[in-house]
Amino acid sequence: MSDNRLFTPDFKMQPYWWDAALPGIGAPDEIVKKVDVCIVGGGYAGLSCALELARNGTNCVVLDSKRIGQGASSRNGGLVSGGLKHAQTELIKDVGKDRATRLLKESAGTLPFLEDLITREKIDCDFAKVGRFSCAWTHRHYDALARSADFTEELTGLPVRMVPPGRQREEIGSDFYHGGQMAEGAATIHPAKYVGGLADSSKRAGAILLGQTHVTGMTRGPDGWRVETSRGTIRTDKVMLGTNGYTGQEAPWFRRRVIPVASFLIATEEIPPELARELVPHARGLADTRRVLSYFRLSPDHKRVLWGGRVGTTAIDPRESARRLRHVMTRVWPQLNDVRISHSWNGNVAFTFDFLPHLGEHKGVHYALGCQGSGVAMQTWMGYQTARMMLSRNSESAFAEGRFPTFPGYSGNPWVLPLILMWYRLRDQIERNWT
Ligand SMILES: Cc1cc2nc3c(=O)[nH]c(=O)nc-3n(C[C@H](O)[C@H](O)[C@H](O)COP(=O)(O)OP(=O)(O)OC[C@H]3O[C@@H](n4cnc5c(N)ncnc54)[C@H](O)[C@@H]3O)c2cc1C
Q: What pLDDT was estimated at residue 85?
């Protein structure tokens, strides 16, 4: 198919979200020379940490190599749930029932925490508690979702119900899946408006935000830290790392513990309202249960479809990732065969070797990293928890327990990832065809 039929004339290789909320440049000429806390990374984690510190009178600065919020926090799909990526049974096997329960309870609490923060700070970010429909890739996945429903309901205190294949069209205008699970509590958000609002709130509370300020190194001496940046040195008592899928050489111990994984999204041109209603009748967030999953939703004004997935491992050309995503999307929704793509973009998420987010302190560096691609609520919570830890010197978070594992020989370059993704895709396909 020719590019003219695939892409709109004003096709953009940047997040659809930036049309309404372009991250601010935020780089004044002067940089601050001395602060109590220096936060590296201006996404949800760094800003949420800054907000809590500043609200408690701590003098802090947030530094970002690019614009404040320009990382994953203004690029994501804006699906918000309080879940962990780790399957419940596996989690219990890995960390024991007690910690598993605390981890799951804490992560379920991240969504109400986010909602309270948005309300308290009056952040205008299209937050909508529309619920989430998890589309079962196979009959077995449907059964597994059914088995987890009661437990999820108990954890979140919010209704979860199964939608059998015969009633699937009540939730999604497609027969592609094998039914699914509806979780009332989940929400959607405009991620770039949210990160912009969080930045404004932190500033109002007293935090200093500096974009275009790349941290090149951090050294600790008897009189505190020297943080070297592309725009000069900052002296600070404490350092917080919120760099997630963009963690670089300046933090080698952490880089060995996070696996950056690219995730891709497209937005379609505007579609007729009746088609939007047919595709996603209740405007919920949707995701399927594949290992290499697709996640999708309508835009907040319900005029476009946003479709995301992991269709490559590095920053491939956005036109190519758009073609791949469109291919997957039109298998689910052939109704979109003649609809063009208006935006295509990608960003990095961070996985960890135990599939759990981690916060804590290592050799004086506080950190909140590794949300496994589900970080709108989680990284906001983790940043807040890290601030509480810095203020009180301890944390009650279950994410601060246990060691932060790495893998022998791994230095931060996940060169085996393409092979792993291929293997996962193959397993998805085998399961679909033979179970
Ligand atoms: C395409 C995509 C779709 C996603 N969809 C969803 C979704 O639907 N729901 C959901 O919950 N989550 C989703 N996520 C995940 C979510 O966006 C992230 O988990 C979350 O934004 C991470 O926030 P953060 O603050 O930890 O990191 P980020 O927002 O990534 O911020 C890290 C920042 O650190 C900066 N940085 C790195 N190194 C340095 C340095 N040396 N000096 C200065 N600055 C530095 C980077 O520039 C970056 O801005 C998605 C992510 C992507 C990429």
A: 67
- Please compute the mean of the pLDDT values over residues 57-80 and round it to a whole number: 97
Q: Which two tokens stand for residue 303?
A: 């005029």
Ligand 1: which residue has its CA nearest to atom 4?
Answer: 76
Within 6 A (CB) of ligand 1 lie: 40-46, 63-66, 70-73, 75-80, 214-215, 242-246, 248, 250, 263, 265, 295, 308, 346-349, 371, 373-376, 379
Kindly report the average pLDDT of the chain as a whole number. Answer: 93
Q: How far apart are CA 186 and CA 109, in angstroms?
A: 12
Domains, the chain, in order of start with CATH, read 3-434 (3.50.50.60)
The residue among 373, 404, 415, 279 whose CA lies nearest residue 76 is 373
In angstroms, the CA 387 to CA 359 distance is 10
| Mutate which of 44, 76, 130, 292 for ligand 1 pocket (most atoms within 8 A of beta carbon) | 76
pLDDT of 86 reads 64
pLDDT tens profile 187-246: 999 999 999 999 999 999 999 999 999 999 999 999 999 999 999 999 999 999 999 999
Task: Tell me which residue of 194, 192, 199, 193 sits closest to 63, measured CA to CA.
Answer: 199
Rounded (10°) CA dihedral 349, 36, 25, 368 = 10
From atom 32 of ligand 1, which residue's Cα is the shortest distance away? 243
Testing ligand 1's pocket by substitution, the residue of 84, 356, 374 carrying the most ligand atoms inside 8 A of its CB is: 374
Looking at 100-104, 155-159, 389-393, which range is the least confident one?
155-159
- How far CA 353 is from CA of 72, 257, 385, 396, 403, in Å, comes to 20, 7, 21, 22, 11
86 CA to centre of ligand 1 in angstroms: 19
With beta carbons less than 8 A apart as the criterion, state whether 32 and 61 touch: yes
* Alpha carbon of 333 to ligand 1 centroid (Å): 29
- Which pLDDT belongs to residue 196? 97
Q: In the prediction, which pLDDT does 411 show? A: 87
Per-residue burial over 283-318, b = 16 or more CB atoms within 10 Å of its CB, e = otherwise: bbbbbbbbebbbbbbbbbebebbbbbbbbbbeeeeb
Q: What's the pTM value of the predicted model, to 2 decimals?
A: 0.96
- How far is ligand 1, taken at its centre, from the CA of residue 335, in Å? 32
Contact 87, 356 (CB under 8 A): no
